[in-house]
Amino acid sequence: MFERFTKAARAVVKGAAEHAERGGAAVVTPEHLLLALLDREDTRAAAALGRLCPAERRPSLCAALSDARRRAGLSRADTEALAGLGIDVGAIVARVEEAHGAGALAGDRKDEGRWSGRRTFSREAKGVLEKSLRVALARKDREIGDEHLLLALTTTGGVVAEVLADHGVTYAAVDTAL
User: Fold this and answer.
1) Which of 7, 17, 77, 117 is the most buried (most CB within 10 A)?
2) Domain named Clp R: which ranges (predicted)?
């Protein structure tokens, strides 16, 4: 499948692995794919993101991703569902961070040992890559571009899709911007 990726899409995948490495994450996640898309310039996805989530709104988007990471990747819907069961995620996060330090639930704290080799992709990140192929096929495009990765991120559910939607980046909005 990777041979069908455009240069821009390959750069996003490579950038995602670099974001994971810089953050000390063991695996590449959909969040890393989004961060790599946000780094891009002069591509179809960058143009769409520029229209829908201009530079002045990006810190808010990144803060929302960081907040979700602190909650161990739970979406707002997950947090609300647990609250309905009487589970206060905020209180749990506070207790864990009190005992183990800030960001203990983030899952991307640096390991004390040395790690070398390629970062693997999480099941969710692989799902985004597969979904980008389906999006490209549905749009009758021959290659998978970074715009297909962005469209896939908006439809896979979870924290990244939720944060994007909160910032006006939905499948319909991206499709229109493209």
Assistant:
1) 17
2) 2-178
